[in-house]
Amino acid sequence: MDEIKTFHLGSDRPSQRVEETSIKFDGNFDANALTTALRHAFFQAWRIDSKLPLWVRQMEGGSGRKYRYFVNSLFEQLPGSRYLEIGVYKGSTLCAAAYKNDLSATCIDHWKEFGGKDEFDKHARLLKFASPKADLTVIDNDFRDVDYKSLKKNGIFCFDGPHSEQDHYDGITLALPALKDEFILIIDDWVMPSVKDGTHRAIARARLDIVASITIETTQDNTLPTLLGSWFSDWHNGYFLAVVRK
Q1: Which option is the CATH number for 22-245: 1.25.40.10, 3.40.50.720, 3.40.190.10, 3.40.50.150?
Q2: pTM, to two decimals
Q3: β-strand pairing of 239-245 with 179-188
Q4: Mean pLDDT value across the chain
């Protein structure tokens, strides 16, 4: 019997682990302008059809390149949108969303878990120079201590804060007063079971309806990918992208 040979990547990387990305579409993507924009932005990102400059594409941060293309296209399809982001880090997601787009963004972080505030401030200055139609408000605070009822209603919400099940449950539940009756929900690090469990629990508890969704998983065994430099990956640690109705 012939010996089956395997390719070894090196002693510092696992050689027997197979990492595959799955992408699943659910729901009615012809329901309204939000679902149509979600689908269009995804396929535009898949084609690498993007106006993002190199400094945004290569920015160190917790988001993949195709996600950056996606979120930039999403806001391009929905000009004048209000955007709420919890978990900012160095600003890769924010800069990708806002670059040369017309939007109002409210970003919440206290920069105590991973740092990155100095880099964020630098990137925010670059963003304001390059994107004069992007209005930016930064709340330097723990997301649990923010008065969401005082914020204007947002149509797109990204939670990329801490990733315990309770964090995700609280993040979605607390932010609901600041979200429109129908909004786009973006959840990062979807391969983590705690992220899925907290998100699903919050959606069920608030009795939210998922109109349409795209689920991207960059591994199939609930583990993080071995490619640690997320800005070199396509979809980082996976995403849940959904149009949600209260």
Answers
A1: 3.40.50.150
A2: 0.91
A3: antiparallel
A4: 92
